[in-house]
Amino acid sequence: RRRVHGDTVLEYSMEVSKIVNTLKRTEHKLGDDIADGKLTYDLYSKEEMDLFDEMKKQAPEDLRVVADFWLLACLRARKYNVTRALELVRKYMEWRKEIDVENTPENQERLRTQLLSGVVRFPGTKDLQGRYIMCIDLSHYDPKRWSSKDTIRYIHFSLTQLLQAHPEAQARGVVIINDMSRVTLSNIDPEIPRELFAAFSAKLPVRLGGIYLMNPPLFFRFIYPVFRMVMKKKFQERLRIYRDWNKLKDHVDARELLVDHGGSATYDLSAAVAALPTLTSPSIYSNE
Prior knowledge:
This protein is an alpha/beta fold and 288 residues long. Helices cover 43% and strands 10% of the residues. It has 11 helices and 7 strands. The radius of gyration is 19 Å and the shape is globular. The N and C termini lie far apart (59 Å).
């Protein structure tokens, strides 16, 4: 029988259909809060702190246990709209429970192996608009080894490390560079993009500013129309597909692009993981 990347045509078609149907169930569309990289206020300025004080005054009793770090991150992620920021705090708290952010030894060991896999990297570099870059390479991902919940926890942990190391990212936002050059269907877990779209649109204390898909495989042409369906028109304009790494230099200075993305920036993943003070996800509560 005919084969596509090692699978029969039937198996290939079934896998693509599963991805499409899963994406169609995405709860929220990307596009309401697009990161433009601009700072509304300087971090910790009087204007920002006055709005932060107002947010704490308006916070209902059950949200007053949340650590100032997360309250401020949500305020920045919602461009200082206090009402919407408090809504985000609640959604973020609920989402953390959904993904089961528990610091058990088993979770920490799985987290360590995923951190070292290089599926997701936050090298601390920025695009031309000042947004921090999230690098994804799904060719390193094995759905049989890690569950979708493991992977969402891993991405969440990595993102919290970025927000702590670079508080500016809370206000400026992030962009995704997704290297799909070596990706096959065996690397795809459709639950992950579905959950990430929902998280970035309504549950995480950070805004997404754009997605760059580099060298997508053949099967992506069948997924792409559905991929766009879960984005509002405003965000669809921020989704770009390139087959030439040099095109990224229209959006990111070469000094801020990793070497494997055609730039000159270096990032030692093993050293970065070894330097982590803990594999414990930072608590959302102020008394922990």
